[in-house]
Write a structure and sequence with these properties.
Blueprint (H helix, E strand, L loop, with lengths): L14 H8 L2 H25 L10 H29 L6 H24 L9 H11 L8 H20 L26 H18 L21 H5 L1 H18 L9
Helix pairs in contact: 2-3, 2-9, 3-7, 4-5, 6-7
Length: 264
């Protein structure tokens, strides 16, 4: 996630050309890997949830695989925020840009909430897009820090794991963003701030350490290796792919008669 989650400090007239020149192939390649993982997982989820194939996509190895995929995206959100903030040179006038970008991603998440509800595909009250949008806004005061993000990120993750272990629940839906879920409610995409915002902060730490000054590490080649190049378009268009891949998967599987979707 994420091209649209990369906030640059360029003027509108130069943003496209500058972004083309300054993109780091290794970051796009890593996003491309995360995109492939996401599509693979959602394929197995669709076969399980809508095809009745008994794959158990929400438990065991596949649940771990889904968490690993989400972690990869969120780490890269943090890395991208660190890179964009460094390139923009800091300053007090950047908050409005991060706020607009965060609200935009949050709006995409809300749109998915509505789509899932209307199509009876499950409850997505606070999925990964909601998390990313809010994280972009919440992370702004922390964008320039290194080890503070490492410590805070680990603390947020620890609190989230504790809450999960204690199975803390509440009847109030307003606590969903914090990781407090009403009993007997299943959400196919649920990434609350605790622990997942902590992963974004770890990405901020890594981005500030590895890409300080907006420059790539010296040990990384300037040109992408041949084998990584097919991943680059996936990584540079990851938000768009995220938004369209699931409808395409579901429609294709339904058209082939592999799954059956009942839309009322």
């Amino acid at each position: 996630m994420i091209r649209s989650c990369q906030v640059t400090g360029e003027e509108p007239g130069t943003e496209r050309s500058a972004a083309k020149e300054q993109r780091f192939w290794e970051v796009d390649a890593a996003r491309g890997v995360a995109i492939v993982m996401m599509v693979v997982y959602h394929l197995t989820y669709d076969l399980d949830a809508f095809g009745g194939y008994g794959i158990e996509s929400t438990s065991g190895f596949l649940a771990w695989f889904a968490d690993a995929t989400a972690s990869a995206f969120l780490l890269l959100v943090g890395v991208s925020l660190a890179i964009s903030y460094s390139r923009a040179g800091g300053g007090n006038g950047l908050f409005a840009k991060y706020l607009r970008r965060g609200l935009r991603i949050l709006a995409y998440g809300m749109a998915l909430t509505v789509v899932f509800f209307v199509m009876h595909l499950g409850v997505v009250a606070f999925g990964i897009l909601h998390l990313i949008g809010l994280s972009i806004i919440l992370a702004y005061p922390l964008l320039k820090y290194r080890f503070a993000n490492l410590v805070l990120g680990l603390c947020v993750i620890a609190v989230g794991w504790y809450m999960r272990a204690q199975a803390i629940s509440s009847e109030s839906p307003w606590l969903l963003p914090l990781g407090v879920v009403p009993e007997n409610v299943f959400m196919p995409d649920y990434r609350p701030l605790f622990p997942w915002f902590g992963v974004v902060l770890l990405g901020l730490f890594a981005g500030n350490v590895l890409y300080g000054g907006g420059r790539r590490p010296a040990m990384v080649a300037k040109r992408a290796p041949v084998l990584s190049r097919p991943l680059l378009p996936l990584g540079s268009n990851s938000l768009f792919i995220y938004l369209i891949h699931q409808p395409i998967l579901v429609a294709l599987l339904a058209a082939l008669g592999i799954i059956h979707i009942g839309i009322l």
